[in-house]
Structures are given as structure tokens and as C-alpha cells.
Amino acid sequence: MSGPTQNGPLLKVEDLRVYFGKARAPVRAVDGVSFGIQPGESIGLVGESGCGKTTLGRAIMRLLPVHSGRIDFGGQDIAPLRDRELRAYRKNVQMIFQDPYGSLNARMSVGGAIEEVLRLHRLGDRTSRRKRAQELFQAVGLDPSYMDRYPHEFSGGQRQRIGIARALAVDPKLIIADEPVSALDVSVQVQILNLMKDLQREMNLAYLFVAHDLAVVRYVCDRILVMYLGKIVESGTPEEIFTQPTHPYTQALLSAVPDVDKGLKARHGGSDRIVLKGDVPSPTRKIPGCPFHPRCPMAQDRCRAEVPEWREIRPGQWSACHFAE
Ligand code: SF4
What is the pTM of this model? Predict the structure, then answer.
């Protein structure tokens, strides 16, 4: 597989759907998502748990089957490929998990785990793989003399550094990071996020950063996608999303983040927090009109009947709300 074209997006997702369960009443975990990622760009995917963001990340990685839609990478649609055909793609697109401990083999040394990735991708010989693992250890701020130790001998932050080193081993262009810092202490979170930012700059890496924590995506991302019930409901730069959110769901998420624009709170009767009614509805349920209307504090009759159009509200900022203005 060739790399991405020079000016086009690195990855382009079109009308992607991931359904589970019975054909008559499927769980629509991802329900018609489209977006692109440019080389070196960092995109944050946010939403409550159950909104479909982790499923979307895993479907793009092709760890889950795709119901319909396209995942274009380097001019090739990845969505219909089978396991063996995905090897080249998986060299270009790697994943970092929330719990690196779970994805590291407890009985394999951490250096061995990195060398193993290189071996699986048929890269180098034993000596060059060892050397590459040492370089990667250094790149993520770990002493290469620790390479023969086992996962349980490291702290959570160090293990995440190992997870990052392993993802970088095959020189990917895109990393899908699924809640990579949510299990870490706040001070360690910042160190890992700074490391990820530095590596991005040095290697022109693109990130798809799946996180429930808006402060985290604000810190690392160029663009934010807000997801609700399997759909993207708003997208924009962190500045736009944080200071001029147009979708009531984004506004509700932001109201739970400390220090966000006081004006937003004022618009909701001065309350500190916009409390949404009920939980995220079951993704098996077909909701007429706007999927957010059962919980939206601003819902009107039109919202119950008419699906809001996905439209550009300001240059670069898109929203799916009838009253986004
Ligand atoms: Fe709320 Fe209506 Fe906008 Fe949907 S379209 S987010 S229900 S105001």
C-alpha cells in the first residue's frame, strides 16, 4: 500500500456504520460518520460513555467489522479488507490503549514486546530489532537498560510510555489513542500528553484521540469532533468548541468542565452545570427527528419531527442542530 497522497487527507472516513446484534433491531454503535484526518493533524473524539467513540476508533483500526461505509487510506478502501490484507494498513495505523498493562504480555520482557512487533511486521533482523527497541525506549524517555524487565515492574506512566514506544516501532503515520491517559494521575497525564505532542512534531504523526475528558483533547488536538448516539453532532477547533459551542450537547459536556466560559452558564439560567435528562438512549431505538431531542434542554416541536442538517455554522465549524445559530 502506498502512503497518502501529498495534498489529500491521510485518512478519510465516509458514512461509516458499525452495527451489532440482530438485523431487525441492530445496535447502531456508529451510525453514518464522515470526517478526514490530515497528515500530522490531531483530532479529538469526545462524548459520554456509550456514544460510540471507542467503537469508531476500533472500527477504523479494523478491530471490529464495518457494516457499511468507507475508510480510505492511501487511496484504498480499508473497510472490506480481511485480516491478512490489513498488514500494510496496520503498519501505518497503530493503536495506543487506555490500559497498556492489558495489552502487554505479562511473561514477555518489555523490550521483547517491542521487538515482537517488528518481527511480526517482518522488519529487520534480531540485532537491528534490538537496536530499534533501544532507540524507541530513549525516544519515550525510558532508560534502555530497563528493556529486559517485565510489565509489572513499571508504573502506570512508564507502561504507557512502553505502549507508545510499541505503537511507534513500525513508524506509523496515524495513531489511534483510546483514552491513553485516563487511568493515570493528573501529573503523569501531562507528562504523557507532552511526550505525545513532542513525538507528533518530530515524526509528523497524526492522532485520533478518543477521550471523555474535554480538557485533555483541548490540550493536544487541532480539531474536536463531538459524538452522540453514534453520530458526529459538532466539529470545530478547540477554540471554537470551547468558546462558541453551537450544539446543546456540546454545551452540556462543556458545562461539566471547570473554568469554561461563564457566558455559557449564564445562557442556561446561571446554573453551573447543564444537567441532561436521563441517560444516553439505547442505540437500538430509532429516534425520530433530532436524536438528542429526548434529552435536549432546548428541544422544540420541530426537533421531534425533523432531522437537523449537518451544516457549516462558521467557517470550519459544523453542527447538527436546527438552532445552532
Ligand atoms: Fe436540541 Fe433541537 Fe438542536 Fe436537537 S435540533 S440539539 S433537539 S435544539
Answer: 0.89
